[in-house]
Design a protein that fits this description.
The complex is a heterodimer of chains A (306) and B (475). Chain A is of the alpha/beta class and 306 residues long. Chain A contains 14 helices and nine strands. Helix content of chain A is 50%, strand content 13%. The termini of chain A are far apart. In chain B, helix 9 packs antiparallel against helix 10. With 475 residues, chain B is of the alpha/beta class. Classes of the chains: A alpha/beta (306), B alpha/beta (475).
Chain lengths: 306, 475
Amino acid sequence: MTELLGSPELVAQGLRTVGYLPNERIASVVYLGERLAKPVLVEGPAGTGKTELAKSVAAMSNMRLIRLQCYEGLDEAKALYEWNYKKQLLRIQAEQVSGPGGATAWSQLESDIFSEEFLLARPLLAAIRAPEPVVLLIDEVDRLEVETEALLLEVLSDYQVSIPELGTIASTQTPLVFLTSNNSRELSEALKRRCLYLYIDYPSVEREQEIVRSRVPGIAEHLAAQVSGLVRSLRAMDLKKRPSVSETIDLAHTLFLLGADEITPQLAADTLHVLLKYQSDIEKAAAELTAGGSGGSSPRVGTAGR
Amino acid sequence: MAAQRPGLRTLATFVAELRAIGLPISVSENVDATAAVAAMPLVDRAALKSALAATLVKNSDHYGAFELVFDIFFAGRQPSGDPATDPGGVLTASPGAAGNGAGREGVVAMLDDAELLELLFRAVAAGDRVLIQAVVAEAVSRYAGLEPGRAVAGMYYLYRTLRQLDLDALLERLLRSAEAADLSEMDRRLARDDYARRVDDVRTEVEAEIRRRLVADRGAEAVAGTLRRPLPEDVDFLNASQQQLAAIRQTVQLLGRKMAARLARKRRHNRRRALDFRRTIRLSLGNGGVPVDLAFRKPHPAKPEIMLVADISSSVAAFASFTLQLAYAIRSEFSRVRSFVFVDGIEEVTGIFESAPDMAAIAQHINKGTGAVRLDGHSDYGMVLESFWDQWGAQIRKRTSVIILGDGRNNYHTSRSRVLKSIRQRARHLYWLNPEPRNSWDTGDSIVSEYGQHCDKMVECRNLRQLRDFVEGLD
């Protein structure tokens, strides 16, 4: 794995082979995350490939991906570990049936039922205990409550989990950890301090064009350029929800399947619903696009000083 | 390509400068930055930037500030015409770009002004970055009139250079060429946006070039000091520039969502839940009838309501546009928000907010004339509170939070602060956000403390940081 993640260039190459086109910053931070053994916190607008990045890293290095989807109300039992009550009960019952009771037997039994055999590993513990290197993806951390966030801290900084009945389980290998956040709330300083930070913004026109061409093989170069240009113009408008990269790809697919070799304003207006998900946004964008441009969106240039 | 790694001292001053701007950088992050730089196999400028950004900047709003300081400390290439100093003694230029540029500069220097403009036009049209850089460098030498040793931020130099380059005319010309070219309608439409962006890039390049000259002249630390700008969250609402306002608007959007999430969270945190007997029994079946897991009924609390009452008089005009923005942002997350605007009369605008597609439409609607201005357009808080109470007082309920946004400058009218007292008695909370600096409260016609005594909280709210603190402190 170290060979595959040996330098930012190798990371970039590897990601390309699995169909993820990173920019230089993304490659560098992934490399640093592995090298410094630090979790990577990925933030950015929805649909820019945050989750995809973790999946692609796992795919390129043939590591298992362990995913923890965060939501409000997630607790220890679902994130870290849980005792397998049912199995423990069965064990106790089996004891009652087969042999005589007694004080010594109970202490034996107690240490028995709180052993690893009765432990249900949830994603965080599973990632720590995995014998081979794994990629741990903690998706949408911002959905956790502030209090629950603290659950993650021990795992993130020391790669270990403390279980009162068992002691501390430390990792045998360092998992590669990615956390994603849509920035719906400010994450705690403690969490941010432990992570490397990567902000994935909407890609540049050139990169987006490249992404379109790699995801929609066979699309004409000119059409790909138009799609990414159109999306760039739409993102500059004041919309409720700006089109994401995945929606760009959807549009490219749509146009490709329609057999279009060029976007006309009419065609753009007809396919806008692929990119935009609010009726008011669609109407606004359609108006701007069909107005021939001379009206609504006269391009502005910042003028000098004052 | 590989350049020297920055020394510890340079990194230390770099971090100190970031801290001076207000970036929260802890000791451990500082250590991480050093480790990250050391871990990069090849330190060119881009690699250095990603390594430092990943370890030092943990908030995307701060990235712009980081970028500026980074450019000052680790200039990408030498300012042309002055090859002597290495800013901060740190990074040397990437030889490829510098060599290329230098070769062309000889030619560029021989052109007259009109030819230079022509060259810029062609470079921008072709998107030739290196050529653009060369032209910009020449333009700055010619027009900026840099005076060595002066401690300025370079705004004047920028102005002088841009006046000569006349970017508006350049854009005009590019657009005309796009019209003339044999392009489809869509391509032309897209080309326009593309050119606007490219011309903006030229402006950025001029700024960067001037900055490089300043750094070469006075050293990175001194320049960073004069160029220090507040972080987005510290920009004063009342005197923010157009650009800053746009940035603020985006963050306010987020903040509205956070506020909604926060209030929602508080609701769901209600721990007094009843046992769900049926589900408990059902769960116990898996354990041989032993109720190991207890199931509870989901809490079902009433939704909180918000009433936003915003001053839109001219003394707080900038603040008003922002408060409307906030109201709009909260509304789109929250169904039970009622908004009111006032100057010397008061009007409910909830309906407008609901029907209007975006902020611009709302502002237009309100400007067209509402009941907010009754007489002379000078705010009269007493009158406004009175009529708010008369018309909507009965609708304030135990779960309603009332938030008033205004500077409390009453133009010497009667205060009628007892009305606030009644509002507070009915409502769950009464908050007052004041866009004026605390030290000018109660000066002149401001009667903040008279109103403040009846509020749960009267907070200064002049920038995003204060607004965020307010939102975080909500309960």
